[in-house]
Amino acid sequence: MVITNLQVAIALTELDLDDEDLQAEVQNLLPQLKEVDGVEDADLVPVENAPPNTKALGGFLLGLLKAEVKPANIKNLFTFLGDRFGNKPIKLVVKAPDGRELNLEAASREEFEFAYQKAQEFLNNTSNNTTNS
Q1: The pTM is what?
Q2: CATH of domain 6-131
Q3: Distance (Å, whole) CA 11 – CA 15
Q4: Tens place of pLDDT for every residue, the chain, 133 residues?
Q5: Are 84 and 66 in contact (CB under 8 A)?
Q6: pLDDT at 123
Q7: Which residues, in sequence order, are bridge partners of residue 6?
Q8: Domain residue spans in the chain?
């Protein structure tokens, strides 16, 4: 059985920074994110994937990153984000291989832990659904 990686979108748009500072924060976070154990790939989100009411800077969506993560290592990602943004609000979207999405928000270490638990429940339901397909 091939295990497909998860897609995780990370939005830093709630950090109350101006556009240039926000993009600088994203650019600074990107290499750190790539070093997290279990993160297979991380990148900025190109304008082509823009949801409504989003801003872009330099061809990429402002304040947004995407990461491809092995399901077994998603806790490492949430721990990293909790350590890095434990007192700042960020939004996460976890996209399962079957296309379902889970939207999460966290602004403290406790909320990141809760978000991780919700992601685990979501992933457990995903694996149960794929065995019934």
Answers
A1: 0.85
A2: 3.30.70
A3: 9
A4: 456 889 999 998 777 888 889 888 999 999 999 999 999 999 998 877 666 667 777 777 888 999 999 988 999 999 999 998 878 899 999 998 888 999 999 999 899 999 999 999 998 886 665 444 3
A5: no
A6: 86
A7: 69
A8: 6-131
CB atoms within 10 A of CB 25: 16
Q: What is the pLDDT of residue 120?
A: 92
Q: At 6, which helix (H) or strand (E)?
A: strand 6-11
Non-local CB neighbours of 5 within 8 Å, separated by 6+ positions: 40, 68, 69, 70, 71, 97
Separation between Cα atoms, residue 133 and residue 130, nearest integer Å: 5
Q: Check: CB of residue 89 under 8 Å from CB of residue 104.
A: no
Cα separation, 90 vs 6, in Å, equals 18
Helix (H) or strand (E) holding 40: strand 39-46
Residue found by looking up tokens 């556009």 in the block: 19
